[in-house]
UniProtKB/TrEMBL annotation:
PANTHER family: DNA HELICASE RECQ FAMILY MEMBER (PTHR13710), RECQ HELICASE, PUTATIVE (AFU_ORTHOLOGUE AFUA_6G14720)-RELATED (PTHR13710:SF154). Belongs to the helicase family. RecQ subfamily. GO terms for biological process: double-strand break repair via homologous recombination. This is Helicase ATP-binding domain-containing protein. PROSITE patterns: HELICASE_ATP_BIND_1. One of its GO terms (cellular component) is chromosome. GO terms for molecular function: 3'-5' DNA helicase activity; ATP binding; four-way junction helicase activity; nucleic acid binding. It holds the Pfam family DEAD.
Amino acid sequence: MEEGSERLMINSMQYTHARLSSNSNRSLPQQFNTVPIQVHPQLFGQVRHILPSGSTYFQSPQQAELVQSTLGKENILAIMPTGSGKSLAFFSAPYLDPTGLYIVVTPLTALTEDMGRRLGQNHSIRGGIYPQFSEQNGQLVFVAAHLAGSDRFFSWLDPQESRLRRVFVDECHHIYLSSTYRACFRLFHKLTGLKKPFTFLSSTVLPQSIELLCSAMGISRPTLRIIRAPIARPNISYSVTRIREEDDMIAKVTSFCCKFLLNADDRGIIYSTTIADAKLLAEALGCDYYVSKVDEDPETNAKKKRAVMQRWQEGKETAN
């Protein structure tokens, strides 16, 4: 152990699993509706064609409830683990109601663009990423968090508000966890003024945090129905290193990364709190960096970012 750093190894099979299971199963306050949603017996057949090949049913009862809930008028909070198929809720919505418009708000630019890529693989759904897609006949439109509360976005949405069926907010924990980090999250409450049902999606919202979400969005607690699945991931462990201000962060992160040998199918991501640090780390490690703006020209910017994302997905070396 290096001096000045503190390493905390969490045994996921013992500590993490026990704590997360306890939090997942903790009783929710009575003011929240947790009664299971009745799933129509023909629902799976209507969305089966967009599920992975060989699927015989939904991944879980909670996924089935979540998809069914898109047809209702209730506000939904779905807390389900990563990889449990939460995105099926909004990708299936245009098939369940082809005349409606569904908006998906995503907190991270990279996530928005990845969702747009997935949508592009499904040519039967009209939609895309706002503002690149700004037509008035869309079915599924993704919008980044920093645009979702803007006047420009509401001006585009206003003429078709009657078609708007539901607003999805992906990774919704950012609404109350990141409000001081990104001012745009403090504008999300403007979406509530549309008087349309919401679906909030996350894998990390604990019971004691739900009231924070409701307060930030201006949503009455009794109107929120909870769909919760156990979020314990016994196959995940955490290693935490605390770095003092006087430490060389770049050197420590570089040293840490060099200890790992990635196989052909493995991928790694380093998240940075500043663009400057992201660039320094990329230079030190000899890899790409991915930020919201890499070029002043919007078209060139989008092209360069797609190239970075594609290289990462394909496991190719940096172009630098």
